[in-house]
């Protein structure tokens, strides 16, 4: 049985006690629901991979109540401090060199010499993290390869019965995962577009290189960037200019005519609203009867549109 906890003092205390005991607890961040475990407990972290059916050990993000706690585990230079000051708490993850003496289990970082750290926005989550008193590793709380969860009900669909508890703080406000920036190399690199737009990063620290660095000496520097990911059951077709009678439509702005099932991400063309509704929309369309696929209208490749298009391209990738 998976306990359903509310974000009140009793629920927070229970969630913290379970995490401290090495159990798995899902909680809602501003981006998506995370599946948390004590990042210093290798057995607890291994249980995350088992619950998600992750095929291999992708490195996980460690979550902290504040920047001081995060920077105790990694070596933060001026760019890391500038980004933390500008965007934490918030949907930004920094990849930095691990500090010698960090208690984070090697498995959390998949044995890399870097560690991904983040301070999530919701006060409830930061109160939970402070109560745990240890870094909390948390990937998105879905089965590997499936659509990320933005409500406690989504978590229960994928992981109900496989984890100790879900802390239900309602729907996630941002709706796409955190932006991942690698600051461990010679220049900043965007490894994953997310809730903090690229334009905002550039405004804070100047130029940011895009994508994974060239592979050096066989070391996988940007793991977890699997082409097929966030996949609904139905095939996904991007940049649709028309919609077939047997297709469901994921619309943005004024919808194309002819679809029977339509989920509009944002009738007014607002990217923040669209991001917040993206994963719930994919799940809803996927559950519609008598449709053979999902047609997706074009979404501008700017601001949060980069993160939305990244997730949609992965949802459309060959499986
Ligand atoms: O918004 C989020 O980031 C959510 C919430 C729960 O915080 N978490 C999340 O975790 O999306 P996950 O495991 O689904 O994605 C983590 C991403 C993966 O692409 C992983 O490869 C990358 O971060 N990552 C983690 N540690 C890394 C490292 N040391 N070097 C490079 N990439 C890393
Ligand atoms: Mg994920």
Q: How would you portray this structure in words?
A:
This protein is an alpha/beta fold. It folds into two domains: 3-216, Alpha-Beta Complex (DHBP synthase), CATH 3.90.870.10; 236-316, Rossmann fold. The protein has nine helices and 15 strands. The strands form two sheets. An eleven-stranded mixed beta sheet has the order 1-8-2-3-7-4-6-5-9-10-11, sandwiched between helices. The protein has a four-stranded parallel beta sheet with strand order 12-15-13-14. A hairpin with a 4-residue loop joins strand 2 and strand 3. Mean pLDDT is 94; it is low at 217-221. Threonylcarbamoyladenylate binds next to strand 5, strand 6, strand 9 and strand 10.
Q: Any key phrases for this structure?
A:
single chain, 319 residues, alpha/beta, DHBP synthase, 11-stranded mixed sheet, binds threonylcarbamoyladenylate, binds magnesium ion
Number of helices: 9
Spatial order of the strands in the main sheet? 1-8-2-3-7-4-6-5-9-10-11
Give the amount of beta strand, in percent.
15-25%
Helix/strand/pairing category: alpha/beta
Look at the structure and name the CATH superfamily of the largest domain.
DHBP synthase
In summary, what is this structure?
The protein is of the alpha/beta class. It is 29% helix and 18% strand.
Secondary structure layout plus pairing:
Blueprint: E1 3-5, H1 9-20, E2 25-28, E3 33-38, H2 42-52, E4 61-63, H3 67-71, H4 78-87, E5 92-97, E6 114-118, H5 123-132, E7 136-137, H6 152-159, E8 165-167, E9 179-182, E10 189-192, H7 198-205, E11 209-210, E12 236-237, E13 247-251, E14 262-264, H8 271-286, E15 293-296, H9 305-316
Helix pairs in contact: 1-5
The chain binds threonylcarbamoyladenylate and magnesium ion (MG).
